[in-house]
Amino acid sequence: KTIFVLNGPNLNMLGKREPGIYGTGTLDDIAADCRSAAEGLSLAVDFRQSNHEGVLVDWIQEASQKAAGIVLNAGAYTHTSIAIHDAIRAAAPLPVVEVHLSNIHAREPFRHVSKVAPHAVGMICGFGPLGYTLALQALAARI
Ligand code: DQA
């Protein structure tokens, strides 16, 4: 079974981007973590990043055909995107676990709202890259 691990805007900048908030590890490091966690769970991961909302919508639609679940860090689109919200609804019953590196509830008020959360199985935030491994474990237990 394959899990799509989908990353939204600016996550390609990890390592350079606000390291005080997001740490010094790169997205490639997170991809490597996901691959080794998936191996231990007998899952495969298809790890992707895009800065474009519509591309993320395309990938969620593709996941509904090909994947057993989605780990989604939609970056700032989390807080704004009705299109991503709708894509997750349309992919039902495909399970989606929402991940954020930072604790979005301890940050600016505009980050406290998630348009992904209402249709996610659950949300993990504030644990940095470990959140992705936790999300894969949560999906493995569910599927
Ligand atoms: C983020 C949190 C979002 O608010 C922000 O826009 C990001 C990253 C996180 O992983 O902590 O781009 O999703």
UniProtKB/TrEMBL annotation:
Active site feature: Y22 (proton acceptor), H100 (proton donor)
Keyword vocabulary terms for this entry: Amino-acid biosynthesis, Aromatic amino acid biosynthesis, Lyase
Coiled-coil regions listed: none
Keyword Nuclease on entry: no
Enzyme Commission code: 4.2.1.10
Annotated catalysed reactions: 3-dehydroquinate = 3-dehydroshikimate + H2O
PROSITE patterns linked: DEHYDROQUINASE_II (PS01029)
Gene3D superfamilies: Dehydroquinase, class II
Pathway listed: Metabolic intermediate biosynthesis; chorismate biosynthesis; chorismate from D-erythrose 4-phosphate and phosphoenolpyruvate: step 3/7
CDD domains in UniProt: DHQase_II
Key word Amino-acid biosynthesis present: yes
Pfam families in alphabetical order: DHquinase_II (PF01220)
Protein residues bound to substrate: N73, H79, D86, L101, S102, R111
EC top class, as a word: lyase
Annotated site (Transition state stabilizer): R17
Biological role stated in the UniProt entry: Catalyzes a trans-dehydration via an enolate intermediate.
Quaternary structure, from the entry: Homododecamer.
Family in the record: Belongs to the type-II 3-dehydroquinase family.
Protein name (Swiss-Prot/TrEMBL): 3-dehydroquinate dehydratase
Species of the source: Mesorhizobium marinum
